Each structure stands twice: as C-alpha cells, then as structure tokens.
Amino acid sequence: MAFHIVLVEPEIPANTGNIARTCAATGAVLHLVHPLGFNTDDKTLKRAGLDYWHAVSIEYHDSFEQLLDKYKEQRFLYATTKANKSYHEVQYADNDFLVFGKETAGLPPSILESNPDHLIRIPMTDKVRSMNLSNCAAVVLFEALRQTGFPNIH
Question: CA 96, CA 85: separation in Å to the nearest integer?
C-alpha cells in the first residue's frame, strides 16, 4: 500500500526536499511534474532531504498529462484553497494520488475545472491566503495514512 504525492511544477527546493523527507518517512511515492523551479542537484534541495534521497521513490514527469496517462486507473485528489470539501471528509484508499500545485499559483485552472468532484482543501482562517506547500502535503498525507491504519509504518 502506498500513497502518491504529486507536485505540479514546484518552485521552492526546500519545500520539495521537506516533502521528499516526508515521503521517505511514510513510504509515499513522490511525483515531480516539470517544469521544476530548481535543479534537483540544488544543494538546498539536498539539504532539506539530506540522507533520505536514497529512501525516496521519485518519478519525474514531463507534464501532468503524461502522469495522468500513465496512471489513468488511479484516483487523483487535488488540494486547493478553492475547494468546498475539506480534506478530512474524503475516504482515502490505497494508491490515491494527492496533487499539489506550485507555491505561487497553486494548481492550474484547467486542472481544477476538469475535476470539481475531486477537489479538497485544508480549512484555515481568512488571515492567510494559503499554507506552506510542505505542511499541506504532510497534513493531507497523514490524514490518508490515519484513515488506512498507518500501513507499513511503525
């Protein structure tokens, strides 16, 4: 059993490094969709996930469409501040793909408009526009893991 974290065009290497470390700790698969806002050799990226890169299952995709085509039978859930449904109201299942957009713009409108029934959000006050990407990925992933009994994690 594994969950999948998808980062669509991530821009900040430290966020991706932190998410990679979370994936290593939980057994989640990390999917990075190009273009990336950094080089994966970037020392900041490596520093954020130092000593854990060997333990992370990472797949790179040239486009989001390429990812969808490869995993067309899987369920994708899209994190956005524009969703009505909270992340905890979803019943998560093995092999769900949890999709997050880039730090400055979130997911493209085309993705959101094509998937209205699969949008989820993290509740927050109106004092901030959004939360940090690595925190969001961890919050949603750990709810999915909690619901499924933390498989393969001790």
Answer: 17
